[in-house]
Amino acid sequence: FLFFIFPLGHGTGFRHRVCRWPLSPNTGKSLKVIIPPESSDKKFVFVIGDSHLRAIVDGYVKVPEGKLSFGYLSVPGGTAANLTTEVRQLVLPRVPDAVCLLAPSNNLDSPISEAEKDFKRLLNTISTLCPKVFVLDFPPRLSHDMVVQDHLRMMFHRVSVQMDVTYSSIAENFPFHRLDLWGRDGVHLSDSDGMDIFAQLLWQKTYLHLQNQKAQVTPKKSAARVVVQDTKPIQPQADQSKWKVVLPGKKRSTPASPKEQRSSSKIIRLHEVND
């Protein structure tokens, strides 16, 4: 009975040998950024996280794509503060259609108050990259106290709700009796079994998030309200050049030219966000 409550600490699944990555001059930690080629018929999704993304970034585990195209920023061993530093220095060639933040489980050993403060700062920073942000729950570990993990997970969920950010739970998909879902260290999911489940969940949660965002921005039809101010008939203007195009919140004497509507830059540069 105790086996199901307290994990043994070691998995039995296979995990590839870790590849050496370049060190970041910003944090001194390993860092790898992957940007997919631009595709007009695919949504660009940028995933930010720690070493749980390593097997995907190194190509050992594939994430289903379809109409989605994934890019990654992975900082093995990175805390919320480390991720914030790297995101502030990040330059992307185009705005993502969505950003997925993998909840930073390397804050497990930090005081919960400090972890909360750093997590809020991280979410604020990422919101400058793309407003369509959602948080993906971190995979549970066999090597850490489940109570501590649950407390951190609940804090991430609470802060996300407070900041109007979707939090997607996945911990229930990794039952502790399935030791093959973890590698020998009990921290990382196995490339043979656990990461396949994680990759499917990443795609699924991302797809649902984009669908929900699409539903929220779809305008609702409402009945027009007519207010009669004068019984005197109004003669229409014959000169169409004097017609006004009325848009929400502003008026123009002529429609905006295509040049005015075109974006002036495709390079996204992040600046520091003050708390």
The spatial strand order of the largest sheet comes to 1-3-2-5-6-7
Strand residues, percent: 5-15%
Percent in helix: 25-40%
CATH architecture: 3-Layer(aba) Sandwich
The CATH topology corresponds to Rossmann fold
Biased composition (Basic and acidic residues): 259-275
Region (Disordered): 231-275
Give a verbal description of the structure.
The protein is of the alpha/beta class and 275 residues long. It has helices spanning 2-5, 54-57, 80-88, 112-127, 146-162, 194-217, 258-261; strands spanning 32-34, 43-49, 68-74, 91-92, 98-102, 133-136, 166-168, 245-247, 250-252, 268-269. The protein has one domain: Rossmann fold (3-Layer(aba) Sandwich), CATH 3.40.50.1110. The strands form three sheets. Strands 1-3-2-5-6-7 form a six-stranded mixed beta sheet, with helices on both faces. A two-stranded antiparallel sheet has the order 4-10. Strands 8-9 form a two-stranded antiparallel ribbon. The longest helix is centred in the C-terminal third of the chain and has 24 residues, at 194-217. The chain is globular. The model is unreliable at 1-6, 220-254 and 258-275 (pLDDT under 50). InterPro entries: SGNH_hydro_sf (IPR036514). Residues 231-275 are annotated as: Disordered. Residues 259-275 have a biased composition (Basic and acidic residues).
Short description:
This protein has 275 residues and is α/β, with parallel strands linked by helices. Helix 3 runs parallel beside helix 4 and helix 4 crosses helix 5.
